[in-house]
Amino acid sequence: MDSDYGIPRELSDLQKLRSHYQPKLPPCLEGTTVRVEYGDATTTADPVDAQTISRSFPHTYGQPLAHFLRATAKVPDAQIITEHPVIRVGVVFCGRQSPGGHNVIWGLHSALKIHNPDNVLLGFLGGSEGLFAQKTLEITDNILSTYKNQGGYDLLGRTKDQIRTTEQVNAALAACKSLKLDGLVIIGGVTSNTDAAQLAETFAEAKCPTKVVGVPVTLNGDLKNQFVETNVGFDTICKVNSQLISNVCTDALSAEKYYYFIRLMGRKASHVALECTLQSHPNMVILGEEVAASKLTLFDLTKQVCDAVQARAEQDKYHGVILLPEGLIESIPEVYALLKEIHGLLRQGVAVDNISSQLSPWAFALFEFMPPFIRKQLLLYPESDDSAQLSQIETEKLLAYLVEAEINKRLKEGIYKGKKFNTICHFFGYQARGSLPSKFDCDYAYVLGHICYHILAASLNGYMATVTNLKSPVNKWRCGAAPIAAMMTVKRWSPNPGATSIGKPAIHPANVDLRGKAYELLRQNAARFLMDDIYRNPGPLQFDGPGTDAKAITLCVEDRDYMGRIKDLQVYLDKIRTIVKPGCPQEVLKAALSIMASVTEVLSTMSSSGNNL
Amino acid sequence: MDSDYGIPRELSDLQKLRSHYQPKLPPCLEGTTVRVEYGDATTTADPVDAQTISRSFPHTYGQPLAHFLRATAKVPDAQIITEHPVIRVGVVFCGRQSPGGHNVIWGLHSALKIHNPDNVLLGFLGGSEGLFAQKTLEITDNILSTYKNQGGYDLLGRTKDQIRTTEQVNAALAACKSLKLDGLVIIGGVTSNTDAAQLAETFAEAKCPTKVVGVPVTLNGDLKNQFVETNVGFDTICKVNSQLISNVCTDALSAEKYYYFIRLMGRKASHVALECTLQSHPNMVILGEEVAASKLTLFDLTKQVCDAVQARAEQDKYHGVILLPEGLIESIPEVYALLKEIHGLLRQGVAVDNISSQLSPWAFALFEFMPPFIRKQLLLYPESDDSAQLSQIETEKLLAYLVEAEINKRLKEGIYKGKKFNTICHFFGYQARGSLPSKFDCDYAYVLGHICYHILAASLNGYMATVTNLKSPVNKWRCGAAPIAAMMTVKRWSPNPGATSIGKPAIHPANVDLRGKAYELLRQNAARFLMDDIYRNPGPLQFDGPGTDAKAITLCVEDRDYMGRIKDLQVYLDKIRTIVKPGCPQEVLKAALSIMASVTEVLSTMSSSGNNL
């Protein structure tokens, strides 16, 4: 299996053109001299979690934020790294492939070679399995040449996505030691970055000199927090899916006789579905977060869709496009409870054929109510993160089936008076996941790769590479690093009796924020999307011309750049110190004291209320 | 329903850019003066059919080919059309939408307005239903503005695709008379163009002055014959599908654990599957024509795929991509026979639930052998062209199911020694059908629209607009018109007892030519495609840069331009006449006679053997 990795490939004309694209670097990373400025010690978003996390991560919790600045930046405390001894770095793809992953490796390799041509980058073959087995490929510019700006993870491949058991952690430690690595870069999503933090802590405890760095690469877009604005791959996935959704919308409008139910890959959270809706304007989207928040049952959802179909039929419209996130199925309360029972029995070793007879009476009733194809899918063994096998459960077919039954019932009762209701179901995921990355993802991943080098040059351990202010052009991007432990939360309960996640600090997938601006934008337009068919076709992914520089709408409407604001706050604090220094007039000091007292009081009150803000 | 058609739409940036693209015209159609040159009277490809067809089409069979030439072309017999009285033309979308359809209307409108600003173009709303009901929308440049170079048929919509029953034909006749149409342009595939020919004949018989013109627009690419090289929409569909297939290939190569079974829309023939294979190099394709020719059973196909999976496993490869045309299911002999029985019973009015009990013993056995989901799909009522509902039968899932069962059996028996075999199934069709058209389809459709005008200006009836030499740049394209009746064949038998097509002349879908160059190219590469994963990613559809001018490979490898060659032959014949005119030396005449005698003999022998060439 090794021999196939990293071999030069024949590229199509378009791939060749893309492979010649050179992503730009923000000014702070240009040249060979970069300043590192450290912020204050970090804490977690929920102060209640801080103690648990600090106990679990004694070596790596509470480390300061790091900002990378131009060598000429006028920041007195920033430290310029001038020494660049030879280092050896390993890099590994963990978890599901995401477009742009290859560019992280390219960016890292490029930064390594700029700072010292003798630096070495080793890629682990076949994901974490390659790490444990110490199977490596030395990355060279020659090897990279046909993988630059290309999709997939096929340069190195990937298999399992876990570095968690004692054996796995020990194998990783042994690999880093025996390969004499100064740094290990882990490319992945929430699970892999949690593993990276754990590995960093274990290495620190074991006095292993290898520093561990995480990179936020996941098409789900659910590794989102105060430090991370979006993930590599999300932009591409949403653009490719939106192209396909809008093609289906055009098809619906041309044939005028089908309702398309489209399920979108993206795991538990509905970020992909929300973004695609804002890009392509289908008639309807059902977000898992909405369903969970309103505790909508399968019956409620069916009714909601049927009412929409009926309202459209009254306007003589017999076509439509409805999006569902793959995580929807777990957000429906009664289905979730059923899944919970099934997973519990499966974990107890009950054979699949005997499950239904051991369900509680109400769960059994729901199970029997389901069409046979769904029953089979609900019985699948849960994934390692305790969730159901979301990509395998055809929620779109279930909903289409229930809606059709209900419409036929209404037709018989004379409530629905329209034409025949026809459905076509789709699952969009794999066909987007292997796409050529968008320009944004090429740039973002390449810059993150460079940042990984600077994190290692600064000898930081347990950090994630971050870029903020992403909605602005590349020359305005702010580059930094945040301790992964600061992104963690602790789940105190789970309705899932077998859940291994209770009480353990981890990066949990961020849900769509129902109080956020992106969701607000959706709600403002939902009625028009539903009735007026204002389908929007962003077209196929481009590298030139209109649309090239379009970024994810959910990224741009939110007012983020947390890292930038943390810096702005520092500037204010420094300014106050300059204005109110010993010798300043009595009145100025008095005014400053009074204002600072009330600011402190307000912030203390707000902070102690924690997550309930 | 009317109010929504032709309304201006909000376009995305990319759509706007595309809408400003102005397709070029070949030199012969530039300016306002075009010469028409008529060739010899046409016949059909199979001389045996000629008599039947001439009896069915007494007014429109045997008409000459028409070539449109530059006004300055030095062709003595060509006629310049100088009079351009005001004409009124109707246009209708028939059958399934195909990318580029809108540009036929734009090209036609543009030619009409160039030649006389008072010309009128009426679009029928909602397909042939709108024609029967005389629901029209006058096409203006303003209405066209947001539909130029855009996908779908939503400018006018479409519903049913038939103009065949006496009521339908009479309604069409009444519409053309009452709207005082000089021409009716029918945009569609094999069925719609057969209907167009029938309508032309009926109109001629009824002395209705409306001339009927057909335009070859179908994503299936199966309206292929000596006069028609390819169809509008085929290029786009294949490019969009190839992009998705290659994304899936990249995904397969990254995860290394799935076999993807992808079924492609395209009706009975396998043109789309062949073209996509040549563009994206998946591991395997199973063409319906191959299966039919070799009479491969479901068991043979399963074995073939299992052997491939096993061969790859021996090279430690556990991933792959396999393409199937949607028509495959009908090409498998025993399944076809089963479908034939089911359709016969359905036509007799047997209820779906009672079908299986009335099947012949062997058909019953096969039916019972099938997994339940396929049984349900096989029981669907056949389409109007007597074929099964191909888009609804999940052949990819059936094959994946059978292969998995066989691999598990081999695993038990110790024959297969590899890892677990995992499949993911896809149907690609709707998501490509609504795409923005490729540059080629934009150009081709626009030129065809112009040709429709010249056909009408020349008062031709029952013709199809044609462009040949399409593999060359637009300025080398040859424009013409061919009588639709000359493209027909007569089916003399059908295994389907209820088939309405027997004995009736019609344009039948062209199969993939297993002796053609495109198929040869596939065979030459099949082994490398299967084992070496030389996946090729043509990338998303582009309008600029590399890949923009790429054309369908199946179009380019074939040595076509029949129309051009017919013209070349004429030039030779004319030359002989010039050389060997009265007064020429005795020897020259003698030599000419001798050679012509043998040429005549050879060609007569070849022609009389008809389709058995």
Give a description of the structure.
Chains A, B: Tetramer of two alpha (regulatory) and two beta (catalytic) chains. Chains A, B: Pathway: Carbohydrate degradation; glycolysis; D-glyceraldehyde 3-phosphate and glycerone phosphate from D-glucose: step 3/4. Chains A, B: One of its GO terms (molecular function) is diphosphate-fructose-6-phosphate 1-phosphotransferase activity. The first copy, chain A, has 613 residues and is α/β, with parallel strands linked by helices. The first copy, chain A, folds into 3 domains: 263 residues, Rossmann fold, CATH 3.40.50.450; 238 residues, Rossmann fold (3-Layer(aba) Sandwich), CATH 3.40.50; 51 residues. The first copy, chain A, contains 23 helices and 16 strands. In chain A, the strands form 3 sheets. In chain A, strands 3-1-2-14-13-8-7-4-5-6 form a 10-stranded mixed beta sheet, with helices on both faces. In chain A, strands 10-11-9-12 form a 4-stranded parallel beta sheet, with helices on both faces. In chain A, helix 9 crosses helix 20 and helix 11 packs across helix 17. Chain A is globular, with a radius of gyration of 26 Å. The mean pLDDT of chain A is 91. The interface between A and B is large, with 67 and 67 residues.
